Amino acid sequence: MQKHDQDYIKKKNKATVFQLIKSSSPISRASIAKKTGMSPTTVGRIVAELYEQGFVKETEEQVTTGLGRKATMLELDRTSVLTAGVELDKSKFRIGMVDFDGRIISLREVNREVSETAEQTLNRIGLELQSMIEQEGMDPGKIIGLGIGMPGIVDEQSGEVILSAQLGWRNVRVAETLKTITGYEVAVDNELKVKALAEYCYGAAKGSKRTALIGFGTGVGSALIINGEIYRGETNSAGEIGHTIVDPNGVMCECGKIGCLQTYIAESSLITESNKIKPISTLNELFEERRKGQFWAANILDRAITFIGITIANVICLYNPDTVIVSGDLVEKYDEVRSFFENDQLQQYVWEPLRDTYQVVYSALGSEGVVIGSSLLAQEKFLSIEC
Amino acid sequence: MQKHDQDYIKKKNKATVFQLIKSSSPISRASIAKKTGMSPTTVGRIVAELYEQGFVKETEEQVTTGLGRKATMLELDRTSVLTAGVELDKSKFRIGMVDFDGRIISLREVNREVSETAEQTLNRIGLELQSMIEQEGMDPGKIIGLGIGMPGIVDEQSGEVILSAQLGWRNVRVAETLKTITGYEVAVDNELKVKALAEYCYGAAKGSKRTALIGFGTGVGSALIINGEIYRGETNSAGEIGHTIVDPNGVMCECGKIGCLQTYIAESSLITESNKIKPISTLNELFEERRKGQFWAANILDRAITFIGITIANVICLYNPDTVIVSGDLVEKYDEVRSFFENDQLQQYVWEPLRDTYQVVYSALGSEGVVIGSSLLAQEKFLSIEC
């Protein structure tokens, strides 16, 4: 069991020391030992590790302890570490170089052909990264790894993409392949999970203890962050709300079940329904039709808004979060949907005892969330540090 | 933030030492320090606390360390501690005295009048506990507290019952009142949460990292245990799946929403639907009608079974557990429903990528789960120890 595991204890001890230096620097080794209950040997070993990794430096400052000895103070070296974050989507990918505090210092967006193979795409990511490093004159030695966020089910331990319906990938060893291409360590995860992590660390959910992020896009999914940790579940699939059944008499889903939530609110579903009436291809066009007074468009969107409410209410029942972040064009971009939140119509769908227990917010990092979150994932995975 | 909090570190350190003594006893203080990275001072302080609380004793055995010194070995004293666990329901309550290893050493069940006030019920619990202690000749000094598991929303921090629709209680300070009556510390929680805890510690979910328990009874609810800890959410209401909306065109729920899951499978809902056709008052009668070939009974139960499948499938999507415990008469007692599980018909409702990720099991502790879980809650709360 995890609790008894010594590797686990070591990892936790390191995280504790790191957090303490981050929150209380400058701080001495002795003070760390006192505050954590760890032995001076343990603290010394962990600090040495952090020092070697380049995170921690000694300050000029020294303090005199009770016994008249000098203690060297420690603080974080925020300039020492870079991670690259990649957002990978069907029709584009974006690469950002991110510093220790989650700031993007360079970003580029590249189109992706839908016909590209996984290998072609991963090769192009490698080339773009190399080109960014050279053009910006970055020190490659400071880059400690690469994180990727993408839609689908990802085995984040091995870095293998089990299934990404959007990209049409099945069992692709992304981390392994990209490590061979770039030479860097690579971490891969579901895009909503890393986005939620970014919002927790630097965005709309700072200080939240239980954050649920719901993404309304090509598919519909959610992620849960508990005390700063992504809740993954057994196969990193927790939060797959798009395939919960919300109407057993409903519409056939591409997954073979009937009445899955995403058949009512995924962008692709809304477009498919619309095309029974009129050939359109974007959400913009659908909202335009509604504004022109087309009842069919109003019917589709009214139903979608009802199900947006149900989605959030169901997430609140199961996760009981303090913060719900709603993200995606459908909920962020159109006044018709924004007014649903602004007028607090959501309350109609929320179980009464839970009505005052949460706040609903838009994402603060917007389109940069996945890039930042992917780089944080790499920080966590390769440096055992948390934001 | 919790991570940086020194009280939190202290509590975690204590739990770590306790776990280690439990899993590796006999063990010396020096060995604990080495394995945990803690200082001898910290280990000494924690061991002294555990010794004083009566959990830890020194063994006869001594080992000679490398330096030729004798080290005293420590082990748990399993006979030193008792906690009382109470299961409180509408029409009865049960009190069990539980030992350190989760074994019930004495149990009694007492009827409760539905008309009883909260104060009357709590007084009767106090009297029964007193009577048990006297009749069994127990040492009151060994009893370190009392845990209560009951239906409803409970503020487990303060021990106040916010709302229990089943008992008709609203804002009842159960812990405070019962402490005044009995003199013991009192912990209170939702019955499904403590039941899941008991199954994790000593029942069907031993060794599971992510357990979901779903209770099908007067209401429908669920609980999630992550690495041995109850996931509570912001107001201890996580898992209230009974009020997720699974059919926006469905039946009116007593909560004021339409299509809540529990309108299709809560026992009370099944009885209410049945009474539109024939006056019956128990699940037994409903199943009997079905066995007699009554189509109305078949229609109600077939729909219920569909929604049992949907309930479990939706929990799997959101929690991605390794183990799902199903409990309650509806799912455990009748062959018609048991065959649904035994023939693995559940798979029909589960999203394809998740089909091999979980096991569904019945509870192992059965009707004793809430009593045992309540006592474990008291152990955790008043001794800062985990099973």
From TrEMBL, chains A, B:
The species this protein was found in: Paenibacillus residui
Gene3D superfamilies: 3.30.420.40, Winged helix-like DNA-binding domain superfamily/Winged helix DNA-binding domain
Protein name: ROK family protein
Transmembrane regions: none
Keywords: Carbohydrate metabolism, Xylose metabolism
Family: Belongs to the ROK (NagC/XylR) family.
Pfam assignment, any one: HTH_24
Function: Transcriptional repressor of xylose-utilizing enzymes.
InterPro entries found in the cross-reference section: ATPase_NBD, ROK, WH-like_DNA-bd_sf, WH_DNA-bd_sf
